[in-house]
Amino acid sequence: MNAPRPLKSTRLESKAFLLLLVGVTLAFGWVLWPFYGAVFWGVVMAILFYPLYRRLLHVLKQRRNTAALLTLVVILVLVILPTVLVVATLVREANVVYQRIQSGELNIPLYLAQVYEALPRWVTELLDRAGLGNLTEIQERVTASLRQISQFVATQALSIGQNTLNLFVGFFVMLYLMFFLLRDGAGLARRIREAVPLNGDHKRELSAKFATVVKATVKGNVLVALAQGALGGIAFAVLGIHAPLLWAVLMALLSLLPAVGAGLVWGPVALYFLVTGSVAKGAILVAYGVLVIGLVDNLLRPVLVGKDTKMPDYVVLISTLGGMALFGLNGFVIGPVIAAMFMAVWDLFGVERTQAVQWMDGGRSVTAEVPAPIPPAIKQEDGPAPPSAS
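The structure assignment produced for this chain is given below.
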């Protein structure tokens, strides 16, 4: 008869296996890190378009490969190709603006001088007290900043040209991953849930929360960005502002920041119109920005983002800013997802703790027979139950 294994050895093996599990998981994440953007967006797109895949799967009588391939074609046509066309047009307009700045046709220091001269006296006095009254120094700083921005843009363009192969590889990885996540995603998610050592109810709630936040954040922020960018671009085109598509895309990107995004573009332009004598254009742009562009953010974002994620606006703003600071453009999804999971986990912890306290209180009242009376002066609300009277 074999002797039982020592308990100490069993614990040591469990710790060693747990250490091995953490190590290989971190190593796998390290291997995937160069393509984390492609993997991340592959997962996001699979989550967003999974309902479409399920419908196609039903129509095609459970032909999983065909349904996944057709869903991938829909993603290419509706999402990826329009994005590529907009980016190509944006690069062309950005190059035109850069050429105009280099040639002096677009003279930023001159525009600053016009704005400064049109400011009221009390504003210029405040600027003098703040050390911003030296217009020549400000122009030099702005020129230096524009030069640095131009160098950065040129460097990034060169880097993109040199890393074309990496872009194509990342694009292929994203499409390849989307196909298999659509086809086998349900089984993979089930295996992950089974492997995670948590309570079944907790796992279901956290997985549902993750999918809900991803859908709400991407759909809500993208729809708000598209709406604000399009409305801003139309206004700029009507007012005769050069490169309206460039400013529209810039407003769309900045609108990912709740409450303040698009105003960082149309606000300075409206101010320039007002102080340089184009009062009608400035007033129209201010009214349009506040009542139309701003109204889109105030109405759509709480409905599309805050309602489903059940997060306050300030949490969405802070998590979006922090996510974009850490992860770049991908952070507008990663940040709110982390914040939502943080709140969900702490809510579950609070519920568990409350239930545990209630259970302990209930057990105490059942097991105690006849508690001995405690004088009011030494009565304790918390602590061990008083001994039973015998």
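Interim note for the steering committee: Residues 365-390 have pLDDT under 50 and may be disordered. The chain has 13 helices and no strands.
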